[in-house]
């Protein structure tokens, strides 16, 4: 484990390195240790030693870059977003929790600096993203195992690459894996201005699907509506409008959705279910309201609706790295064709992490916070 207390000052830097380095778990994806020197190391990282409020437990630390092995890759991180899963992981409320202390961040893009003698498939200059959650991307650079990385084309925008590995993948798989949708079919979703929601809108439009996008009411609702429609959203309605009797008239002109995507839970998910076509499926991939999904018995008996769940980490476990690589390349094709843009982003330097974390946890924030490592 990484341990550094005030008493460390009683030892020389060399003694501290001998104390700390052997204790580091070399099986982790990125090997590093706290810098024992009082001088700043060239590696800076956002580290948390305990679970809790990210604004209180995350600290900017100096780390020591590990020596490279034959199957390792030295990566300079370029940019990494702050996602809800990152926040949940720091809070201790996620399906995968790294060993503590840990570096935050599950997503991002880096550039290969050097590769080990047995590494194939990537070379210096290539862009890479994490193959799985828990890599710890909120750092300036690191040595990772080759198996923990996926190469991505470097001819796509940096923000697209930095946000490619989680939200667009989740959106694409949910649209493809649960219902056999055809052009003209409808999909309904809540949290439509989230990273996944924005990806769903764009990918669905590329597939010829019609989207009904539910958002919370807010003072700038028209501005948000215009922005989502510019992305390809056909309909944008508020949670309050979804509950109104007039929705019956709405579905006279729009086919009832066969697929609902739920990131909220509680009353919002109940409303999505209520408007599903008979035999339709609701897929839950998040629980922003921290309330259970409640479905009436009549929906199961008379409409035969199906409730499913999706977690990208589980999908990766069930599929080969080559299949994930194929998914990434499919999304990159959409990006090159102008059919998939990165979510609305705000870039902040790594040292402004407190502002990025606090903003990411605020309600009604449509802009994804991106940490830049330059």
UniProtKB/TrEMBL annotation:
Q: Could you tell me the EC number(s) of this protein?
A: 1.3.1.104
* Gene3D superfamilies noted in UniProt: Medium-chain alcohol dehydrogenases, catalytic domain, NAD(P)-binding Rossmann-like Domain
Could you tell me what reaction this enzyme catalyses? (2E)-butenoyl-[ACP] + NADPH + H(+) = butanoyl-[ACP] + NADP(+); (2E)-octenoyl-[ACP] + NADPH + H(+) = octanoyl-[ACP] + NADP(+); (2E)-tetradecenoyl-[ACP] + NADPH + H(+) = tetradecanoyl-[ACP] + NADP(+); a 2,3-saturated acyl-[ACP] + NADP(+) = a (2E)-enoyl-[ACP] + NADPH + H(+)
Top EC category: oxidoreductase
User: Can you give the residue ranges of the Enoyl reductase (ER) domain?
Assistant: 60-371
GO BP terms: namely: ceramide biosynthetic process; fatty acid biosynthetic process; intracellular iron ion homeostasis
Q: What is this protein called?
A: Enoyl-[acyl-carrier-protein] reductase, mitochondrial
């Amino acid at each position: 484990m990484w341990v550094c207390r005030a008493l460390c000052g009683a030892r020389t830097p060399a003694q501290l390195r001998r104390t700390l380095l052997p204790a580091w778990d070399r099986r982790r994806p990125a090997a590093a240790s706290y810098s024992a020197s009082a001088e700043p190391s060239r590696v800076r990282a956002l580290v948390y030693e305990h679970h809790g409020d990210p604004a209180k437990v995350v600290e900017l630390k100096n780390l020591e870059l590990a020596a490279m092995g034959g199957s390792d890759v030295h990566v300079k991180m370029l940019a990494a977003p702050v996602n809800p899963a990152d926040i949940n992981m720091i809070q201790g409320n996620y399906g995968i929790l790294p060993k503590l202390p840990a570096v935050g961040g599950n997503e991002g893009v880096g550039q290969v600096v050097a590769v080990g003698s047995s590494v194939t498939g990537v070379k210096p200059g290539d862009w890479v993203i994490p193959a799985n959650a828990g890599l710890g991307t909120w750092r300036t650079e690191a040595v990772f195992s080759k198996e923990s990385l996926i190469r991505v084309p470097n001819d796509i925008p940096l923000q697209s690459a930095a946000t490619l590995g989680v939200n667009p993948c989740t959106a694409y798989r949910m649209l493809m894996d649960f219902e056999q949708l055809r052009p003209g079919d409808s999909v309904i979703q809540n949290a439509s201005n989230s990273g996944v929601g924005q990806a769903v809108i764009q990918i669905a439009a590329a597939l010829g699907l019609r989207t009904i996008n539910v958002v919370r009411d807010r003072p700038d609702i028209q501005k948000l509506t215009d922005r989502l429609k510019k992305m390809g959203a056909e309909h944008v309605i508020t949670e309050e409008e979804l509950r109104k009797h007039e929705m019956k008239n709405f579905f006279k002109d729009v086919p009832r959705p066969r697929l609902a995507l739920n990131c909220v839970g509680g009353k919002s998910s109940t409303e999505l279910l209520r408007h599903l076509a008979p035999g339709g499926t609701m897929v839950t991939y998040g629980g922003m309201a921290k309330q259970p999904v409640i479905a009436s018995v009549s929906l199961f008996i008379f409409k035969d609706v199906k409730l499913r769940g999706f977690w990208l980490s589980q999908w990766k476990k069930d599929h080969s790295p080559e299949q994930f690589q194929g998914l990434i390349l499919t999304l990159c094709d959409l990006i090159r064709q102008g059919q998939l843009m990165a979510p609305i982003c705000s870039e902040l330097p790594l040292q402004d992490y407190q502002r990025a974390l606090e903003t990411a946890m605020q309600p009604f924030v449509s802009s994804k916070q991106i940490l830049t490592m330059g």
